[in-house]
Amino acid sequence: MKFKAHLPLVYGLLFVCWSLTAIAQQPGLNDKSLTYGFVSPNTREGLKLDDAIRGLSSSEEHELIRQARAFGCVAQSKIETLKAVGSWSDGAEHSVLIRSTTDAATMRYITSVLGRNAQQKATLYFHSNSSGSADIYILRPQARSRSIRSLSGLLDQAGIEFRTLVPGKRSVLVYVVDLRREMRAKIVAAARKIKARVMSRRGSAEFIGDDSSREKARTIFDEEIRNYESQHSALITKCRTSNSDPQR
Questions:
Q1: For residue 194, which of 143, 246, 234 has the smallest C-alpha distance?
Q2: What is the pLDDT of residues 26-67, one digit of tens each?
């Protein structure tokens, strides 16, 4: 995965501020709430958008999805997976968006295992909580004819350099993780440009890995995995016994 946040009113535009509805619950990092993981199975350099789109049908994409879904036991919640394209101004890669109601530590663990297995340099997670220092935006274009290719071009023009595009039955959704909560103005402009509705959620987000080296990234993934398994040994043993652990 590219080590960037590719993923951070008026007529035709509606903001739904999920962060406001979350204030009453005050979820923290250790609480379960809607959590996202972003992982790619790609290890090739220099992929273009068309390469990434073709990669959505690849065996490596399907294997990553299979592994991700097997983590339901660890997350103690259903794991949803969506085929996705991580896209930036000069490249792209096929990816998987993971969604589950779990805590931050568990999603860090899941994405670390998947990242290590797929020989990635980095993975990204976002955990919803009302005191977090990050935002996630989801843009839903109203025009069903918008393709991944056309959206990528329009988002480039709007200054959204890093984003994740998720093709669906009705439209292509755009996910942007804003690590520092500084992209709202750009998101508003982009939403106007592609005529999209916007949903936002506040939370905590972080890249795990090392963009300079797969070997260094593996060391970081291994440390994340060891720390989690030492603190959740009973759960890990239970999941491995039930053959629900993709590391087996």
A1: 143
A2: 466 678 999 999 999 999 999 999 999 999 999 999 999 999
